[in-house]
Amino acid sequence: MGFSLMKKMDICLISDDNYVEYMATLIVSVLKNSCKDDKFHFHVIDTGIKSDSKEKLIDLKNIKDFEISFYISPNIEKYKKWAKEFKEETHLWWKWHYSILTKLDIPFIFKDLDNILFLDSDMIVLTQLNKFYEIDMSDYYIATIQGDKKCLSWISENSPFFNWMNEIGCEKREYVGTGLFFINLKLIRDKYGLENYQRDIDICFNKYKNTIFTEEHIFLYVFKKFIAYIDYNANICLEWRDEEQPFNERDIKIMHFKPLSKKHNYELNDGYNKFWEYFSETMFFKENYFKYMNIFAYNASKMERNKIIEAINKIVDIIVYPIPFRKVRHSIRNKINDILN
Length: 341
Prior knowledge:
alpha/beta; globular; 7-stranded mixed beta sheet
């Protein structure tokens, strides 16, 4: 299902008012990395965006014109119930918000579109997106990135989830990442059928809710062998980065992270700086300049300090290593740590 001529790109996003600042930044990054003739329609599944926040999103048309529409998930009440049931399961170590389950409603909401690209709202795009619309999707319901070893390290062999994947006929490497995926809406309607799609979603949840815990698992169950795996260096969490390779030498096209929080440590690099460059063009930033500059300064100074401490600790290791007495080594380390603190 490739295109010889570029058409309008339909992009689906999901957000509430807690994530709308990230979504605004994502939109800026898409616009800034597009060609002159690229046209975009952002389709937002609204899980609680305030009206003034929507106005700030519309204001981004000053950067480049685009269309934007807002939708309500038809099954939102059911997904709230499902999310509650997931959270009540004692085996869970992730507690996802119900809004992630609204991704399952994309085929129901966009019945007039042939395909759509979905992006998690807490991403930034550093490349043109038109290549996603050139994928041959003739025989596939969705195209998504394939998890790398670090991404899939949580799936241990012989764990209940690993055994579940085997039960439904999937290998570990076939895990579906739905932070970014391209979905063939027309094929789902024409070949799968929306009634069958809805039936299988419900079957998966009701039968396996004690093992699965997010929408990715339901997508894996319903689409199984009709998934195309692509690699555009996308959906990169900075916590999973290759420590041996400097960030600026990595060919990362789409990044997934949350630098507006003081809870995360991020490497001070081009990606981090790009986020702030894009975010600074939103009204969210412009109307709360001091608030966000404080967050930026906090994270930047923290990262710089951590780099300094890391370097000093390496030097200390060299200094204390030859000392034969353990107590003396610890005493020297403690004195240096006291100075740093």
